[in-house]
Design a protein that fits this description.
The structure is a homodimer. By secondary structure, the first copy, chain A, is α/β, with parallel strands linked by helices. Chain A is about 40% helix and about 25% strand. The model of chain A has no long low-confidence stretch (mean pLDDT about 95). Chains A and B meet through helix 3 of A and helix 3 of B.
């Protein structure tokens, strides 16, 4: 049984659907400041291992805009809190550069404590907010090859193609292989 | 003797000048992600107390731009790393809003482990980079009532009026009183 370090029910549900049995572990782990999601994840897993034993997974999602050289990246939460989706769109619009990518990195620490990373990355375009969503920056991100924002897609449509889905699929493949 | 949790020789020197004896403690403490410097500092002091005993001080400096609703704040390090001083100036320039403030918060944990906070805040204006400096965002910040950027001032001129000086003075006053 893998403990998923998250307080987000949507993420937990998605992980359960793909991986099968996953146990939520909603402990309050601070996120360290670093633009490298691997460092953020390593710090969280290390902290978790001090409190609990077992297999853990933790995910970190970055949204990176070319207009501001990769920011906000791992710091997306604070951009949303301060300037919101409108403000983030404006940062791209000011530079007339709307290129962005969404990156999900999952860190999985196995029973021996070793950490493995799995990544899903989706290129896309930043647009003025469209679609109802309570989920972060979904209203401003259109994946390349699509016309809808993540927020305009239904959950099931989004979860077919999302950066998180890609990372979860890689983790599942890894787990399936080692369990054979 | 107070341990100053820093790896920055300039900050150590300034603190020593004002407070008298201060001991550098250059341990690698991760900074947590939070826009409230008090939270960042509390986490660092808590971590330090797990490794060492005694009195500690730690400082956190924020630069907040009105144009982007208070960002980068505590996240200034990563803005400098990604977009540099030119890029930060541009964020203000795009909005034609150059108002900013520099905030230094010092957390001091006494022998009993209780934490006290001291703040220094300087209002100012963001300008296109001027003046040689290896010190972060000094070339783009002009304190209100002055014409030079922090980087154009000499160290001694800057240290008379800086946000950090103000916070250090308050800490010194506190320490002087409790030692009587």
């Amino acid at each position: 049984m893998i403990y998923f370090l998250t307080g987000n029910k949507g993420k937990l549900y998605e992980a359960t659907e793909i991986l099968g049995a996953v146990q939520e572990l909603d402990i309050d782990l601070p996120e360290i400041q670093d633009l490298d999601p691997h460092e953020v994840i390593k710090a969280k897993l290390k902290e978790a291992q001090q409190h609990h034993q077992g297999e853990f997974m933790v995910e970190d999602t970055s949204l990176s805009l070319e207009a501001i050289r990769g920011l906000p990246g791992t710091l997306i939460k604070w951009f949303l809190k301060s300037i919101g989706t409108e403000g983030i769109f404006k940062l791209a619009d000011n530079e007339k550069n709307y290129k962005a990518n969404a990156l999900c990195v999952i860190g999985y620490s196995d029973k021996s404590g070793k950490t493995h990373f799995f990544e899903g990355r989706v290129e896309g375009t930043i647009v003025s907010p469209r679609g109802d969503s309570n989920f972060g920056w979904d209203p401003i991100f259109v994946p390349t090859g699509h016309s809808k924002t993540y927020a305009e897609m239904g959950n099931s449509e989004k979860n077919q193609i999302s950066h998180r889905r890609m990372a979860l699929d890689k983790l599942k493949k890894y787990l399936d292989n080692i369990e054979i």
